[in-house]
Design a protein that fits this description.
Length: about 260
């Protein structure tokens, strides 16, 4: 297979495998999991992967329209978020933890984590739209490119504040500090990959097909973005699991 045929066929094979594994996972959790909300989350994952497959077929049938392609990429991240959440909340470490650590500071770290997750997810949507807005031999839309750069700045600021807050407030809680530190490291790598992806794209605008360096760096950029998202989700779920409101927060929340 030459050109994009290898990647297209490989993508479909991997997608089929993911779908089958999701079916197995859903059946297993429906039979073994006692928590109703976890079973419902598993069912949502199943419906999400089915919808993802339908969107994938639609993109091929309609010849890659921007709206459908961007929706396909966005739903993939949402499905990934769901499976990461299932992995976290069914892990042994989750079962051993209780909300025994009091929040510190004016702004609860849990809410900072939520804001970071939302910011990363919005940036992934912008990135998907940008990625599918033009082929390799066409210039990227300036407005989307600027929006993506602005989103990168927002993610950097929000995630850095969140991770540093966790590291400063709870330095002895490896359950929280580990994903916070990993998120910061992945963020640095992601910024460098984003710059490299743009440079390699600009360096080969007239090639007959995308060259391997551009393909590899772009894929690495997308994959690292997903890892940033997964790590931030893990940090958020863990913060809600083990951090609890202080009496002051609870009193204020009653008004």
């Amino acid at each position: 297979m030459v050109g994009n045929l290898f990647w297209e066929h490989g993508h479909r094979m991997v997608a089929t495998t993911v779908g089958l594994l999701t079916i197995v996972l859903t059946i297993y959790l429906l039979r073994k999991e006692k928590r109703r909300w976890v079973r419902r989350l598993a069912v949502f994952a199943l419906f999400a992967v089915i919808a993802q497959g339908l969107l994938g077929g639609l993109t091929v049938k309609l010849m890659l329209p921007l709206a459908v392609s961007a929706a396909h990429a966005t739903l993939a991240q949402l499905f990934f978020c769901t499976t990461v959440s299932l992995a976290v909340i069914t892990s042994p470490s989750w079962e051993r933890r209780l909300a025994t650590i009091d929040e510190q500071g004016i702004v609860p770290a849990r809410y900072l984590c939520l804001a970071a997750v939302a910011t990363v997810f919005l940036q992934l949507i912008i990135g998907a739209t940008l990625r599918h807005s033009a082929t390799w031999d066409q210039p990227l839309p300036p407005e989307l490119l600027l929006a993506h750069v602005g989103g990168a700045l927002a993610v950097t600021l929000m995630l850095a504040i969140t991770a540093v807050t966790i590291l400063r407030r709870h330095p002895d809680q490896i359950f929280l500090t580990r994903p916070a530190a990993i998120a910061l490291a992945l963020l640095g790598i992601q910024l460098l990959l984003g710059l490299a992806a743009y440079v390699t794209r600009q360096a080969s605008p007239y090639d007959p097909q995308p060259l391997n360096p551009m393909v590899a760096i772009t894929v690495a950029h997308v994959a690292c973005g997903a890892l940033v998202f997964a790590t931030t989700i893990t940090l958020t779920l863990r913060s809600f699991k083990c951090l609890r409101s202080t009496a002051a927060f609870e009193f204020a929340g009653g008004f």
